[in-house]
Amino acid sequence: MNDWTAALALFLLLNLVAGLARVWRGPTPADRILAAQLFGTTGVAIMALLADALDITSLRDVALVLAALAAVAMVVFVRRVWTGQPDPEEAADAGR
């Protein structure tokens, strides 16, 4: 791994620390989930960078799977929280 790759990986890790601060402080659930989305995308970027630097093709595959999962998680969040749709489990519990 050359110096440029190491510096870029360090920069991405510092972005994760900034995102962690946003998760702790909030102030809204939307801020927290968007910071969690930052973890996903930054983690994918770090894995792709390391896969290229260390020539590990399986790590590239893991990064692609995590990118797909992060996209699905964001769609679920938007449909449930921002649109105000009730959680089916909570609605079933409230009817009892």
Describe what this molecule looks like in 3D:
- This protein is an all-alpha fold and 96 residues long.
- It has one domain.
- It is 85% helix and 0% strand.
- It has 4 helices and no strands.
- Helix 2 runs antiparallel to helix 3.
- It is flat and about 55 Å long.
- The protein starts with a helix and ends with a helix.
- The mean pLDDT is 82.
Please identify the structural class as seen in this structure.
Answer: mainly alpha
The strand count comes to 0
Q: What is the 3D form?
A: flat
Number of domains: 1
Question: C-alpha Rg, in Å?
Answer: 17 Å
Mean pLDDT: 82
Q: Stretches where pLDDT falls below 50 for ≥5 residues? A: none
Order of helices and strands: HHHH
Q: What proportion of the residues is helical, as a percent range?
A: over 70%
Strand proportion:
under 5%
* Straight-line distance between termini: 59 Å
The biggest sheet, with number of strands, parallel, antiparallel or mixed sense and barrel status, is:
none
H/I helix tally: 4
